[in-house]
Specification:
single chain; 237 residues; alpha/beta; Rossmann fold; 10 helices; 38% helix; globular
């Protein structure tokens, strides 16, 4: 199966820092892949470069066989990639309903938008209860659900997730990851950055280990979980 997302020797430098160095990875259609590493390893920078928020210094990014290497973020989103950023990035002074509709800002297919909105509410019933509430008044977990719902309103083929468990209570982490698994079961590919490496490797089929902006290990998640170096560095063993 050909890759949906193919990153080849990607390098990103900004502020005098070479944050990503010749990084290569792939995500197949419908696949869940995680990127693990210490803080400052270049994980968030990678997602920002893929989504068009940071210009690459070198290398290429292809999505569905087409180069998106230097496309602006709004055009990348139109191609079918949706980023759920670290910190959720909801619009705090807009309602839940308004936030969800922002995810569909580039779409004109009103009937399909309405159908997708119904599906988001079915997936995230807590948002239905709070649709008139200001997003800034939601709990952290509810804001994460809203960020996921807003991303799904763009009808993505690939979801880029940056630290979805950050700052959440354990029960809410479980609820959020259940939602992510259900989204993936619907055919949406996922590239996940997650501080909880055990959870990331348990959730995804494959993984990459990033150190100092470079991929040092990759393979099936089960193999990475059993790797002594990974266990010592990221799994607390």
């Amino acid at each position: 199966m050909s890759a949906l997302l193919a990153i080849n020797r990607l390098s990103v430098a900004y502020g005098g820092i070479h944050a990503v160095r010749e990084l290569s990875l792939e995500v197949a259609p419908g696949e869940m892949v995680c990127l693990i590493g210490a803080n400052g390893a270049g994980k968030t920078t990678t997602l920002k470069a893929v989504s068009g928020l940071l210009p690459p210094h070198g290398g290429s990014v292809h999505f569905d066989g087409q180069s998106i290497t230097r496309l602006p973020a709004h055009e990348v989103a139109r191609r079918g990639l949706a980023l759920v950023p670290e910190g959720r990035g909801v619009f705090p002074r807009m309602s839940v309903a308004e936030n969800l509709m922002m995810g569909a800002y580039a779409r004109r297919d009103r009937a399909e938008i309405a159908r997708d909105l119904d599906q988001v509410h079915a997936l995230l019933p807590r948002l239905t209860e709070r649709r008139a509430q200001l997003a800034g008044l939601l709990s952290g977990g509810e804001q994460q659900m809203l960020a996921l719902g807003r991303a799904m309103m763009a009808r993505p083929r690939l979801l880029l997730l940056d630290e979805p468990s950050m700052g959440l209570a354990p029960l809410m982490v479980q609820a959020v990851f259940d939602i992510i698994r259900r989204i993936a079961a619907g055919g949406v590919a996922v590239l996940l950055i997650e501080q909880n490496a055990h959870l990331a490797l348990k959730t995804c089929a494959r993984g990459y280990v990033l150190e100092n902006g470079t991929v040092t290990l990759s393979g099936p998640a089960a193999e990475l979980s059993a790797n002594p170096a990974v266990r010592q560095a990221y799994l607390g063993d």
